[in-house]
Amino acid sequence: MEYCDRCKININTKTNICPLCHNRIKIDKDAKITYPLYEPLKDKYTKTAIIISSIAPFLIVLALVLNLFVIKSSYWSVIAIAGIIYFWLLGLLTFNKRINMPVKLIAHAITISLILLIINMFASNELVIKNITWAISYAIPLLIFTFIAFINFIMFNTKQKLRDFLLYQLVLCLLGFIPLVILIWGIAKPLYPSILTAFYSYSTILYLIVFSKSIIKEEFKKRFHI
Asked: What is the pTM for the complete model shown?
């Protein structure tokens, strides 16, 4: 074990020169290998998660109690609870650095669509499926269209992110056909937003297959062990 008098450190290597100060060092046979003390990084996400998880259940119960005993005009508590759960769970997901951006974007696209559907359903006292008009006809198709366009912009603007976003974009494009399926069932009117989203989803899938076929195959093999 070598020791540098100038740097005051032990050096576990066979050399006569200190790698820091380049001064000659002496051999100290009795010295022990020393390592710096481990200091764990402070995880701000954990503290944020604890605070949010403590407040959210209280707000949910409060909204439910107010709707049952104070403001009984409509089912507004369902909308409020859906919003609280969204900011609770998706907020934690957004601030979690261990989860990559494509997963966060798809999670937001799905949950926002569900919240819009809930708002449309419970905005009045009549829970009839015919009342679900603007959410399915306009909001959800245009929302999915926007998310697909945003991910396309990221992928094609930054080529190295193409591989990271590829499979998630394909999943989101498949979701883009759901408004068209609902349109075929006769629930959504008018048809233009649903057709526009389905066409854009199809165009994106076709483009990815034609120009990124090899990358798609590699990603499927990697993720599904094909």
From this structure: 0.69
Write 174-181 long-range contacts (CB < 8 A, 24+): 174/201, 175/109, 175/110, 175/144, 175/201, 176/141, 176/144, 176/145, 176/148, 176/200, 176/201, 177/201, 177/202, 178/144, 179/136, 179/140, 179/141, 179/144
| H or E segment and range at residue 105 | helix 101-122
Structural domain spans, the chain: 1-39, 132-226
Secondary structure class of 2 (helix, strand, coil): strand
Provide the token pair at 202. 């199809």
Q: What is the pLDDT of residues 4-28, one digit of tens each?
A: 777 777 777 667 777 777 777 766 5
Cα separation, 149 vs 197, whole angstroms: 10
Query: Among 28, 30, 3, 33, which residue's Cα sits nearest to residue 17?
Result: 3
Q: Enter the tokens of residue 146.
A: 């926007």
List, in order, residues 6 or more apart from 61 with CB less than 8 Å away. none
Give the Cβ contact number of residue 162 at 10 Å: 16
